[in-house]
Specification:
Elements (H helix, E strand, L loop, with lengths): L5 H7 L5 H13 L3 E5 L2 E6 L2 E8 L4 E5 L23 E5 L2 H6 L1 H16 L16 H9 L1 H9 L2 H13 L3 H16 L8
Antiparallel strand pairs: 1-2, 2-3, 3-4, 4-5
Helix pairs in contact: 2-4, 5-6, 7-8
């Protein structure tokens, strides 16, 4: 790659995980992926389809696969980044030697991910839309037509964020309190935390 991207260079210039990022980048570029910066991370794509991303977190560096849940993972190295992650899977590293010892495996996973893009594979997100409303939320929606209309007008992602936030509370009183606190944002068409 002859052209330098200032955003890529800025990320690569960060001291934390510098060598690890460079090694993961070299592996990704060896698979003929296009490089850019998206969401503040190094992103690698094939024919405009996002394939992988390099994460530099506080405690680890990771190579994330956008459709990682579809990968075969014979080495059992992929982990979901969060409890509710449906598609993204990561391989996490704490030192450069781990990346170097798994370079061939990472390349194989990247090539499989590219094949998924070539065939147009899609992750089934139906589970994402099958969330159960907590009783307290359902009661609040039933009690207020304005709240119900506003909640139904939210994007599915914002609805999901609220449902997960309310459901995480162990006590009913906490769920009710959270619903009351979030009601103004819901009525304003905002997502969780006013976004």
């Amino acid at each position: 790659m002859n052209d330098t991207n200032p955003k890529v260079e800025a990320l690569l210039g960060q001291p934390q995980w510098h060598e690890e990022r460079e090694k993961l980048r070299a592996i990704a570029l060896s698979c003929q992926l296009s490089e850019s910066v998206k969401w503040g991370k190094l992103c690698y794509s094939f024919q405009n389809g996002n394939v992988a991303m390099i994460f530099g977190m506080k405690e680890y560096c990771a190579l994330g696969f956008f459709k990682g849940s579809l990968l075969k993972d014979p080495e059992r190295i992929l982990v979901a980044p969060g409890e509710h992650s449906q598609a993204m899977r990561q391989v996490r590293f704490t030192q450069l030697s781990e990346i170097e010892s798994q370079a061939a495996v990472l390349e194989a996973y990247l090539l499989e991910a590219i094949e998924l893009e070539k065939v147009g594979a899609k992750v089934d997100f139906s589970e994402k839309h099958e969330l159960t409303y907590p009783e307290e939320l359902q009661a609040a929606l039933d009690a207020s037509t304005a709240l119900k209309a506003a909640f139904e007008a939210l994007t599915p992602g914002r609805q999901r964020g609220y449902i997960l936030h309310f459901s995480r509370a162990k006590q009913s009183s906490t769920r009710v309190s959270r619903i009351e606190k979030c009601t103004p944002d819901i009525l304003a068409g905002k997502g969780l935390n006013g976004r």
